[in-house]
Amino acid sequence: MKFVTRTVGMLLVLLLLMGSLLVTGKAYAQNTQAEHQKQLEEYEKKKKEIEEANKAKEKLLEAEKQKNAAKKAYNEGNTALKKGSYEEALKSYDTSIQYDPSLVQSYYGKGVALTKMRRYEEALAAYNKAVQVNPLYSQAWLALAKLYRQLDRYDDALTACLTAVSNDSTYHKAYYELGFIYNKRKQYQKAADAFAKVTVLNPKQYRAFNAQGVALNKIGKTDEAIQAFQNAVAIKENYYEPYFRMSSVFNKLGRNQEALDAALNCLKYKKNYAPAAFEAGMAYEQMNQFTNAIKYYEIAKKSRNWRKSAQYQIDMMKRKMQ
User: Fold this and answer.
1) What 3 state SS string does 149-160 have?
2) Is the dihedral of CA 237, 243, 244, 245 positive or negative?
3) Domain closes at, from 134, 168, 187
4) How far is CA 39 from each of CA 32, 53, 296, rounded to the nearest angstrom?
5) Is 52 inside a domain boundary?
6) For the whole prediction, is pTM greater than 0.85?
7) Which residues fall within 8 angstroms of residue 219, CB to CB, at 6 or more apart?
8) Fewest C-beta in 10 Å: which of 54, 89, 146, 228?
9) pLDDT (tens digit per residue) in 161-208
C-alpha cells in the first residue's frame, strides 16, 4: 500500500514537472517567435528605407542628367543663333525645354530665334512662357516690350517695360526702351525722363543723351535739348547724329553760324550725310551765302528722301540770284 501511494506521488510530481516544462517550452517558443517577428519587421523596414533612399538617389541622378542635357542643348542653341542658323537654334532650344521645362533661358532663346525668323506671334508666346516660369526675368520682359513696340502694340509694350524696370530698377536697357515707347505714345516728357534715367545709371550711354535731346526738342525745351546733344558728343566726339540734331535746332532758332558749325561737324564724321548737308545749306542760305548753300543742297539732293526738298531750295535761291 505504501508502495502504491509512493508511486502515485512520484507520478504526480513527474506530471507536474512535465507540465511545467511544457508551459515553459511553450512560453519560450512564443517568445522566440515574437523576437523573430520583430527582427523580421525591423529588417523589412530597413530594407524599405534603403530601397527608398536608392530610388531618391536615382531620381536625383536622373534629374541632374536631364538638367545637364538641357544646358547642353541650350548652349548648342546659342551657338546656332550666333551663326544665324535660326531653325537649328530653335530645335536645340525646344530640346532643352523638353529636358528641363524650368530652364527659363531656353524660352528666351527660342523667342529670339523666332523673332529673327519673323514668326512674331510664336516669339511672343515664347517670351510670355519665360516670364510665366520666372516673373522676375527682366530680360524676357524687355524682349516682350521691344517686340510689342515693333508690332505697334504700345500699351502692351509699356506694361512689359514697366514690369522690367519694376523688377530691376537698375536695368538701364529697359529705361532706354521705355523712352522709345513713350515717344511712340507722344508722351515726350516721360520719354525724356526715361532717357535721363539711363544716363544716370550709365553715364557713358551717349545714345541716350541724343534720344533725350530729341524728346526735349519735341516739347520745345530747346536749351535742354541742345545741352543733351552736347553731352552726347562730349562722350563720343565722332557720333554724327547729335551734330545734325543741333544744327536743325540752331537753324530754327536763327542761330545760323552755330547751325553751320554743327552741320559741318556732322559731315566731318559722316561724309555726304543728306540731313546735315541740307541743314548746312539752310544755314548758308539764311546768311545769304547762296553759292555755298547750293553746294550743300546739291549734296543733300543725292539722297532720294531729301531730293525734292533740296531742289526746291535750290530753285528758290536761283530765282533770288537772278
Assistant:
1) HHCCCHHHHHHH
2) positive
3) 134
4) 10, 21, 103
5) no
6) no
7) 188, 189, 192
8) 54
9) 999 999 999 999 999 999 999 999 999 999 999 999 999 999 999 999
